[in-house]
Structure formats: structure tokens, C-alpha cells
Task: structure prediction
Amino acid sequence: MVNLRLTFIFIFISATLFSQAKKIDTYSIADCEGAVNIFKSGNYSVQFTASGGQKAELTSYPSLADISDKNIVWVSYIAPSDGVLSLKASLPNDFVQMVIFEEMENNICGELPRGVAEVKRVYKGKDLASVGLDLNVRNGFLYPMTLTANQKIMIGFTTSEKSKAILQLNFNFVAENVAEHAANETKIIDQRSDEFAPSFSIIVRDQETNEPIIANLTIEGSKDMTALYSGSDIFLNINRSGRIYIKCDAEGYFFVDKEVELVANTEQTVNLKMQRLKKGSSLQIEEIEFKPGTSEFMTGSEGKLSRLKDFMASNAEINIEIQGHVYAIGENSLSAQKLSEARAKRVLIYLADHGIERNRMTAVGYGNTKPIYPNAKLAYEEQANRRVEIVVK
Result:
């Protein structure tokens, strides 16, 4: 397989001393809260961690007593439109159990411990290496699920307690509305109720070629706009001012997140440039910050760390080197070297603690020996020099 080398750059806010870091409070893929999020049809790979989650999420379902959560991975799926979902989950040399829950209220992970989320499909046998949903119903394969737009389901897959095997997943969603499916092919989603009113536009393009990219966009923070969209050109009306958060994902590209201030009755356009995963490409990721002089994550970094965890979990065949860099004036010092290494290791530890296999990752510190701006004078130049680079091989 052609090696991919992708550099992800994280922002640091601090300087050159080192102290012990606290563990950030988030969840692994063995917890519903840490589930790998899948938004579109395609092939994915997720690695079992040989461990259970922090919470016992199946105990409120007596009918699931034959399914052990001592080695489980969770995957969430949100339907982009009305349609039918089929899937296949396979392990090379072990059994797979599967249970699918439907969200009943507005927080499926909060519903599981209370027994509120509804079990929609389940296969409890320990005799098959492949299970799923398929129109050709047979042992281990149940009827596909009919979903409505933005409906969320949570899928738990389990296997032998000590297994760290890679689970191969294939998701296939067929839109029910043929006209909507055709609109996706034209890459344009127009949900304006008034074409003459000011529009809010989201334009998704390839960073190098400027060609349209059909991406999955999740908008959060606005009652009027909160939804999942699939397209390259999204047109909406702005009815009120406020702040929204856009998450953009597309196959073959690294994710893009953007915070946007909305101004009511004002024309606005957000251009999202997506970077293709290929040798030598690099991307700067904001909002992963460290307390000054330490390797301790600052509050607010959890979201981007979780996004990186999802990327690693759903691309389980990729190995990475985590490189630490700091900004300091003058020659490289021992304290700068130690701090850069500690920060690189902290990212590795976070990923390992949240279900990513350690032998897929190495951490290296470079101190201030490889600045992007050797003669940094401006604040953004100094921040660019404070970074962790993730090299995907």
C-alpha cells in the first residue's frame, strides 16, 4: 500500500518548562460517549481495545445478558436523509456480536444506562466472524434499518475479551427520495425558505484543485440550522444572530471544523478548503492547547482530541509518529527539548487511553530545532512554531 504521510499541526500556548499533566476526562471507543462517528457509506476499520468502558451500558437490558461488554467498540450513525441502512462487520479469526439501539429522547448515551434507548437489532451468537444488516436475511444478517433524516442509532460490536483485532466495517445507505439523491449528485443543497432574503452559504472545495467536494456537514449551536447536510454547496437563510459550529468530513480528506458568528439578515459565505490525505500534506489544528510550561491540556481541547481519536479509530491500519515542537528564543535548550517530548507523549497517551493501540504510535521531541518561522516576530508566527506534528505513514 502506498504510504501516506500527513502532518497535523497542533497549537501550543506556552513555553519551556515541564510538569506532570493531568489526565483529560473523556471516553474511549469502549464507551458510548467515545463512539466512532460514521456519517456516510463506505469502508471503515476499528480496532478492539481488549477492555470495557467506564460505564456498564448494557446492564439495564436483561435480554442482552448473553452479550458481554468487556471488549466492546461503539459506532454511531446519523442518517443524512430518509433511507435504508445496510452494513457488514467482519473479523478475520474471531466472532462478532452486534446490538443496535435507536435514540428515543435526545441523548442516546444517557438513555442506555436507564434502559430507555430501544433495541432495534441484535445478534448474540458467538459462532460467526461476519454479521450485519442485509436484504438477503441469513444467519447473522438481519433486515436493513429504515431511517428518517437525522435519525441517530448506536451500534455496539463485541468479541473475545482479550482480542485486539481490527473490525472491518462496510456501511451502505440508500436514500429513499430519488430526487434528493439526485440533488446530492449535483452537489447543491438549497434549504432557503426565501430566495430573496440574505443567504448563508457553505462552500466545500478541494484545497489544491478547487473542485467541489461532497462532504458531510454537521451544524451545531443554532435551533434554526442544527442538522446534518450532505453536499458541496449548502444554502440556508439566517433568521437570527448567534454562533454556530460546523464540522465537515469527507472520504479521502482530513476533517475541517469552523466556528462562525452569524449576523441576522446579512449575506454570509463560509469557504471550507479540505486537504486531501496524501504524502507530504500538512494541516494546522487549532484548539488543542497546553497550559504554559507544561504538557497538561487546557480545557477546551477535548473536542479536537476526540476528532483525532475518531480519525485514528476509523483508520486502524495507519501508524503515526507524533513530533513535538516548542517556541523559544535562541539555541535549543534541555528544557525545551523535554517539554516538546512531553507534549508529544501526552498526545500519544491520550490516544492510547482512548482506545488507540500504542504500537501504532511513536512520540519524538524536537525542541525548537525545526521552527516554521526561524525569525518569528508576530504572535501567529510564534504560535505556529509551538506545535505537535502527526506524521501518518
